[in-house]
Amino acid sequence: MLLSSGFTVNIGNDTSLCYGEIIHLNASTPGGTFIWQDGSHQPGFTVNSPGTYWVNVNSGSCFASDTIQVAYTNVSLYLGEDLTLCGQDNLLIIAHGNFDSILWSTGSTDDSVIITHPGKYFATITKNGCQASDTVEVKTCSEIWFPNAFSPNDDAFNDIFMPKAVNVEDFDMMIFNRWGALLYETTEVSKGWDGTYKGKKCPQGVYFYIAHFKMWENGLKVKKASQGSVTLIK
After folding, report:
1. 142 or 45, which is more confident?
2. Domains and CATH numbers, the chain
3. What is the Cα 212 distance to its own chain's centre?
4. Cys-Cys crosslink for 171: which of 8, 88, 213, 220, Cβ 3.0 to 4.6 Å?
5. Per-residue b or e along 81-115, where b marks 16 or more CB atoms closer than 10 Å to that residue's CB
């Protein structure tokens, strides 16, 4: 702070802010004229980035000046891409960032956590009073298996041909006879073929299926296809 003839101006002490925060510097002086470091002439100045800020104030024959240093704390957190958990596997999620402390949604305060169940996991880090958060989703590993036979005889056992599937999306399956005629199509993995065509039971024999779907692999949805034969048993 520089002063003349007892006239002073004070725009505050040097400070540190978190990114996204602003500070308003006030040099208001009755009857004063102002010039800031960028050449502006308002009584106040809004700071939203790090740097050195100063103001010169003239009031009559008196002059005063003040300078402030504003720093910003850059805090960021990255937990990585979404992950896939298969079977009895464990996953290690590591927090990447520069921080003083961390708190996970699991309650852990370690730099990493071991995950044994699917779900969404997040962490919040703190540095110099500033915070940042990130979230990672752990999905169940995709699995699909098509049986090679079924017996639609209304005994409530193995009456429907459909796959056993876990975490499979965008499913489409078509059933054909040996001459290539389309008998059935579904876009729901939980709805299969009951062995009929246009309301009539199909004869015993071998039929063919083509299925398209997406499965989760390493946190990504991957297009897949499967085709094969199924025997309809009376």
Report:
1. 45
2. 15-73 (2.60.40.10), 83-140 (no CATH), 143-232 (2.60.40)
3. 27
4. 213
5. eebbbeeeeebebebebebeebebeeeeeeeebeb
Q: Find out whether 200 and 191 touch, Cβ atoms under 8 Å.
A: no
Burial 26-36 (b: 16+ CB within 10 A, else e): ebebeebebbb
Closest CA to 183 of 173, 191, 171: 173
Cα–Cα distance, 96 to 103 (Å, whole number): 13
Q: How far apart are CA 231 and CA 161, in angstroms?
A: 10
Are residues 32 and 43 in contact, defined by beta-carbon separation less than 8 angstroms? yes
Q: Could you give the C-alpha distances from 182 to 23, 145, 153, 186, 196, in angstroms and in order?
A: 69, 22, 22, 12, 12
Q: What percent of the chain has pLDDT over 90?
A: 75
Print the SS3 string covering 14-70: CEEEECCCCEEEECCCCCCEEEECCCCCCCEEEECCCEEEEEEEEECCEEEEEEEEE
pLDDT of residue 12: 94
Two structure tokens written together for 104: 């996970």
Mean pLDDT for the stretch of residues 123-129 = 95
Q: Enter the pTM of the model.
A: 0.61
CA distance 76 to 196: 58
Q: Residue 126 corresponds to which tokens in the numbers above?
A: 């703190």
Does position 30 have pLDDT exceeding 60, yes or no? yes
According to DSSP, the residues that pair with 138 across neighbouring strands are: 83, 119
